[in-house]
Each structure stands twice: as structure tokens, then as C-alpha cells.
């Protein structure tokens, strides 16, 4: 029996040594699990910050897209207005050219009317001179008639 006890005691020691090794392994695994849990917590915080950053960047992208759309609308409107302005300028140029032609025609008519006016003035002066000559002849004729009449009387 003592041999059985010795064997049982040796087995018990061997089992206790194995238990001690298992407990050491369990403690090491617990420590490793704590470290990994801390790492997971840190990674989770980094992941949350990354998602927040992604959300912020997405919001900024959306804001920039809206601003870009508005800028495109403004640019299109300004381009359209520029095209309209160019068309309006061409139209005004055409009207100015037409007005210039009309002005040239009117100036030509004014020059002709001035020439005609000068001719009329000259003719009027000549007529006035003729009237003065006629008046002189009338006076002379009247005087001559008076002389003749005197002579007849």
C-alpha cells in the first residue's frame, strides 16, 4: 500500500505541477486578453474617430458639391448674359451703323437745302435789285409822264 500511496502522491504532485502550469498559462492568457481588450478599446476609439472624420469629410464634400452646383448655375447664367450682351452689342452696332447712314443722308440733304437756301437768297437779292430798278424806272416813268402831262397842259 505504501507503494500505492507513493504512486498516488507522485501522481498528485505531477497533477499539481500540471495545474500550476495551467494556472500560469491561464494568468498569461488573462494578461494577454487584457492587453488585447485594451488594444481593441483603442482600435474602437480610433475607428469611431475615423467614422467621425469620414462623416465630417462627407458633409464637407456635400457642402462643396452644393457650392459647386451653385457656382455652375451662376457661371451658366453669366455666360448666358455674356452671350446676350454680345448679341445686344451687335444689334446696337447695327442700329448705330443704320443711324450713321441716316445721319449722312440727313447731312447731305441739309447741305443741299443750304445750297438751295443760298440760291434763294441770291435770287431774292436779285429780285430785290430788280424791284429797286423797277421802282427807279417807275419813278422815272412817272416823272416823265408828269413832264409830258405838264407839257400837254
How would you describe this protein?
It comes from Onchocerca flexuosa. This is Myosin_tail_1 domain-containing protein. Keywords: Coiled coil. There is one protein chain. The protein is rod-shaped, with a radius of gyration of 63 Å. It starts with a helix and ends with a helix. With 153 residues, it is mostly helical. It contains one helix and no strands. Helix content is 99%, strand content 0%.
What kind of sheet is the major sheet?
A: none
Q: How many β-strands, per DSSP? A: 0
- Work out the oligomeric state of the chains in this entry: single chain
**Regions with pLDDT < 50 over 5+ consecutive residues?**
none
Percentage of helical residues? over 70%
**Shape verdict:** rod-shaped
Percentage of residues in DSSP E strands: under 5%
Reading the helices and strands in chain order gives H
Q: Give the averaged pLDDT, no decimals.
A: 93
Class by SSE composition: mainly alpha
Number of helices: 1
Q: Rg from C-alpha positions? A: 63 Å
Distance between the termini: 215 Å
Amino acid at each position: 500500500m505504501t507503494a500505492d500511496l507513493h504512486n498516488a502522491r507522485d501522481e498528485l504532485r505531477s497533477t499539481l505541477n500540471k495545474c500550476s502550469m495551467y494556472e500560469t498559462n491561464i494568468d498569461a492568457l488573462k494578461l494577454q486578453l487584457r492587453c488585447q481588450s485594451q488594444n481593441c478599446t483603442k482600435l474602437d476609439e480610433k475607428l469611431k474617430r475615423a467614422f467621425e472624420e469620414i462623416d465630417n469629410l462627407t458633409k464637407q464634400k456635400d457642402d462643396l458639391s452644393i457650392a459647386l452646383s451653385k457656382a455652375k448655375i451662376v457661371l451658366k447664367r453669366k455666360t448666358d448674359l455674356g452671350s446676350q450682351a454680345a448679341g445686344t452689342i451687335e444689334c446696337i452696332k447695327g442700329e448705330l451703323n443704320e443711324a450713321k447712314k441716316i445721319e449722312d443722308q440727313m447731312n447731305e440733304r441739309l447741305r443741299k437745302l443750304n445750297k438751295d437756301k443760298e440760291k434763294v437768297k441770291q435770287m431774292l437779292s436779285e429780285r430785290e435789285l430788280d424791284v429797286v430798278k423797277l421802282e427807279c424806272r417807275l419813278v422815272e416813268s412817272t416823272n416823265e409822264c408828269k413832264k409830258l402831262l405838264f407839257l400837254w397842259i
